Amino acid sequence: MSQDVKTGKTLSPATPWTDRGVPGIHVPDEQQTLKATFTEPTIECPECHALVTRTAMSFNAYVCPQCDEHLRMKARDRLNWFFDQVQAELGQEFAAKDPLGFVDSKPYPERMAEAQKKTGETEALVVMQGLLKGIPLLACAFEFDFMGGSMGTVVGDRFVQAAERAIELNQPLVCFAASGGARMQEGMLSLMQMARTSAAIQKMKDAGLPYLVVLTHPVYGGVTASLAMLGDVHLAEPKAMIGFAGKRVIEQTVREKLEEPFQRAEYLLDHGVIDQIVHRHALRDTVYRIVAKLMNLP
Ligand SMILES: [Zn+2]
Q: Looking at the predicted structure, is the pLDDT value of residue 155 above 80?
């Protein structure tokens, strides 16, 4: 007595071949349902709309491999990419308060909690200490996704602490700026950070230590009017928008149409506002060379 290959029923020799099962691969029922396969998350380039995997983007320092557009980098990614070795993170003891009890469409603490959840950062400035090609230095980066990288008291605290630590350790400071300006929710206290950070930079200059600014897309308002324009050297990434008031506001004030590349890094370079536009792939080398030169290192 043989068995049917499919049904497992006992077959008598009299069963016609047309009734016998066809031998095949047995697939258990639970495997027959379709399952989603793992696909790598992709990022769409805002310029050429190419879909590039997140891994490829991060390996390329978030520069589009198709069209060379410089995508925004998260502050933490930026610093981890910039340093060969991160030794410490500074300023995490500063936490934002709500000194004015500010409420717009929602209360400030609620807005803050949302930004923290969205970015995984506690504030809009990340400060790290580490080595760049063997040179010990401090660097800070603005997290633009954290309430538009706006400068509140904690950003001021962290920046001032970074500058003071730089003086203490006799190390240069590099700032990657990307901000919409002052933080409205902290009112006057936010504007005071412009003076505080400017004073801290002056202390660095008095100590003879270099302070470099790398302007990334975009830098506006109170940050442009203070720490982002007080560097010894101003580098910018290609096509970064840099200004004090936004283009639309100026157009409405002067009643004139302002054409591209108004407020772009290339325009500012032509007009002597910044020193150099540096491709992101060349940025680490450029900063290293400038710092080594200014610090009189071999
Ligand atoms: Zn692209």
A: yes
